[in-house]
Amino acid sequence: MKTAKPINTQKLVLLALLTAIVIILQILAILTKTLLPAFSISLVLMPIVIGAAIIGTYAGGWLGLAFGFAVLISGDAAAFMAINPAATIAVVLLKGSLAGLAAGAVYRMLAGKSKIIAAIASAIVAPVVNTAVFIIGSYLFFLPTLTQWGEAADAANVTAYIFLTLVGINFLIELGINLVLCPTIVRLIQIGQGTK
After folding, report:
1. Fold that domain 9-193 belongs to in CATH
2. Residue-range domain boundaries for the chain
3. How many CB atoms are located within 10 Å of the residue 112 CB?
4. Would you say residue 122 has pLDDT above 60?
5. Do 63 and 47 contact (CB within 8 A), yes or no?
6. Do the beta carbons of residue 40 and residue 26 sit within 8 Å?
7. Interatomic CA distance for residues 14 and 11, integer angstroms
């Protein structure tokens, strides 16, 4: 008979701590909207990448899911909730979860060759997947409304509106933050894994 794998208390505590950090950083992201109302920048991708690398791929998925719940609770998706609540909930939870799972999978795939390259690649993959799922969800569920918003904003077309107004600058800032913080991400992963 197969016995259950023992729970690693240290990893469980780290996962709880990273979950709290994800929620706090999402709340701080909402506060940035008071300074920069046109932007909704996700500051939570770094702890998601760290958790995915240290604890595992599924931890990245969990942290991404926690990020999604924080987005929904914080009201950051309120404009989309007013249009299609079920689709908004699905897209928000899916984009966070898939970003975390992808970051963990990429880290696992590349860590055998170089943990530094693995950390950098997963720090890049997380915002790419997060943004890509949002874009796909926008086209699938919100296209008529986004077309109207684009026309009101004098955008050339809905694609220009989605890429340049909704995600363009946000994505570049999120990716830039992850890239600038990559040395910190690498160091925190090394500390968490007990390596130098």
Report:
1. Arp2/3 complex 21 kDa subunit ARPC3 (1.10.1760)
2. 9-193
3. 8
4. yes
5. yes
6. no
7. 5
Task: Compute the CA torsion angle 60, 32, 83, 70 (nearest 10 deg).
Answer: 30
Higher local confidence (pLDDT), 108 or 31: 108
Q: Any idea how long the chain is?
A: 196
Residue 147 is which amino acid? T
AA letter at 51: G
For residues 173 and 41, the answer to whether their CB atoms sit within 8 Å is yes
| Side chain identity, residue 186 | V
How far is 34 from 40, CA to CA, in rounded Å?
A: 10
pLDDT at 36 over 70: no
* Amino acid (one-letter) located at 35: L
**Structure-token match 């796909």, residue found:** 136
